[in-house]
């Protein structure tokens, strides 16, 4: 007997048949004695349709109206799932963001949750075992009383925030994949599903493109210590024993991972472009002169590498998504006199490979092993950045798969 | 300079192009100096789609969830129209039923409006000339905090209720037809559009199938004395002079109709069935024994005719919609011993023709003229009922068009 949040994405509720299937998943947990809050996305395709209408009406539309429009998608699925649950004899009701309420900031279309009132939901758990079916992705701004949305993928964040508010034992995210893998199985067939991964590691993986969970939801899970379980929505409800351990990955605090591995996963991203600025003055304000204009142009800078200068001038390298490379290059060229650099070297056929693991903290020489293994394969490393639990290498894109496979084997991830 | 409510139905907001056209209609009134609240329905087809999903999930679904689902249609159009108005440089924002709030009864799927708070909308009129774009058809129940809907056609009622709450000078209903006619122009090509019609007359016409406005909205207009103007949504915004008198019908209080005609219109309904119960005891409780079981079976009884008895027994005739005839007949047959009747006569090929006019009150012999005119055409009258401003005749369905044309001419409605 525990308290559970179950989150289902757009493909899981794409039509009535699938919504009925979701209801069976929920029934399984209710029958096992759990108190359940369900968080649903809009039917897949619906949000795109609504966004297209808003854009057709005006490409530059009021974000407050955009939110009122797109939040309707989750409203529909929450009502439909409540009906499907009632049909199975389960006490259930739908909740819109403003009804709970889920308070957010006023940043329409990309609001952040500031507080969730879980009292009424808990009361109904206790009084009548009522399942709460909650429209994900949305909230309300307290002062204006207007509907807000959390941005794409926001339902994951809704789910974890609700789990925190109702003191859930676990937040189950039902998704297209059955968990988090050591790396992309399409590149490394030997990639293994991780049974557990620490919040910190997941944060590094998610932002690197693991694309399983919205980064913000992992942050929230970490702050409120809500274990988040990523599992497949394709598993048949009747095949799952709620008392057993279903396949999936538990994202939890480091302490709950008994035997933490040195390296947990290898992430990579091929759509990178590199810009190296040569011979800039190593003095205060130079970095600002470079990254200020890029920020003004809303260009996402990823890696930044600057070495200690020897002679008063230095080189600075950074990467941007390949799609933003032309604009980034233009921005830096325009700012040449202000930055005061001699030369620009750029490369677009580059990839970033990252090695992630909490165990790195206490293990010396982890990166050194990688350098040696890659050198053995004749893979040149263009740039290196490191953090406490991750290091990233910029290499020629052509070597991406080889590098990922090499590192996957090197750190013992090929074994179960 | 006045205060105006403009209501647009589903076909007027069926796609983005039409929503932009609606915005031009609104702009015209704003430019003329009016404070405007707009009430919108869902895009045509959307409500049907949502209802179908609810029904597919479960034919017997929770009306509270049904309401949460279907109310989303108006939410979308309110946001889209607000954007379209902003694009024209007009200050505008969307309002959901719960935001205003529009309080209703708890009768989900067919709730009645109990109160509308117009304060904030008026405040915004005064402070910044902001157009309120209001999702029609919906409200909120105060105690439960849940979304309610008003039933089909409910946006008309929303519009009139809001007009009353913000003390609007007029409520314009933009619809598929350009006003209320003396009768159906498809039957009588000489039918004329009425410039004005009294609330009471409109009530009699609407419930008889004129289908221009939801009955409840006319009741509300009458109670709060809100003039309701029915006009065409197909008129091009640029062709309309906001200072002129646009084509349409004003539904208003009797006092505002200077020269009221004896007869205003001829309504008719062909889908009627007649049930005559012969030789029932003329004693207390008999009518209850007949209509009680019919009410329990949710059968709508329309005309009821009972004559004064001569010998202690009498006949009673009533009509029901043709679609409900089999059930009605069965109900009465089942109750035979309780009612205690000798014989049942039924007819399904019957029609009801009604003559409506406030002037009848003060003019004697209006009905007598009709009886004579129909007799001259050899049209047999099966039953007659009368009220203060209306009388209805039950005739053989085959004569419907002939009877309507005859009466239309008789009461001088063919002339402009």
Structural overview:
Two copies of one chain form a homodimer. Chain A has 416 residues and is of the alpha/beta class. Chain A has two domains: 3-255, Carbamate kinase (3-Layer(aba) Sandwich); 265-410, 2-Layer Sandwich (VC0802-like), CATH 3.30.2130. Chain A contains 13 helices and 18 strands. The first copy, chain A, has helices at residues 16-31, 46-57, 63-70, 72-87, 119-128, 154-165, 199-210, 215-224, 286-296, 325-334, 336-339, 366-376, 400-410; strands at residues 3-8, 35-40, 92-95, 102-104, 113-116, 131-135, 138-140, 147-149, 170-175, 196-198, 228-232, 249-252, 265-281, 304-306, 313-321, 343-356, 381-387, 390-396. An eight-stranded mixed sheet of chain A has the order 3-6-2-1-9-11-12-10, with helices on both faces. In chain A, a hairpin with a 6-residue loop joins strand 14 and strand 15. The first copy, chain A, is globular and about 75 Å long.
